[in-house]
Amino acid sequence: MLHEIAVVLFALAAGFTASAIVANLYRLLAEKPKTETGKTVYMVIMVVAGPSVLFDNATKSFRAKACPGWAFWLAAAVAGYWSFALGLFVLNLSLAL
Predict the structure, then answer these.
(1) What is the distance between the alpha carbons of residues 55 and 89, in angstroms, rounded to a whole number?
(2) Do 15 and 82 form a contact (C-beta atoms < 8 A)?
(3) Separation CA 5–CA 50 (nearest Å)
């Protein structure tokens, strides 16, 4: 059972790390999308960068007292689940290579 817990935690960490890397690269390199193609690329990037962006926005809002505690924890749970799913994809991809 310890092995399965370690795999779950590793997948969660791998997904959140991949999300943060993509989100920060996008923030450094990209501009606001203006064309339809740009908006489509933005949406695809946000599928990967979403957990990091969601957790960052929830943390900023919670620190500013703009949202209740339950909303922060709900956003953290969604970001965690999203990171886990993304991490499973990253692990599956790395095992295939």
Answers:
(1) 20
(2) yes
(3) 24
For residue 92, what are its two tokens?
């599956």
Per-residue pLDDT of the chain (97 residues; tens, 9 = 90+): 899 999 999 999 999 999 999 999 988 887 788 889 988 988 999 999 999 999 999 999 999 999 999 999 999 999 999 999 999 999 999 999 8
Single pTM value for the model:
0.84
Count Cβ atoms below 10 Å from residue 16 Cβ, excluding itself.
20
What is the rounded CA–CA span in Å between residue 63 and residue 72? 10
Distance CA 35, CA 89 (A): 29
Secondary structure letter of residue 67 according to DSSP: S
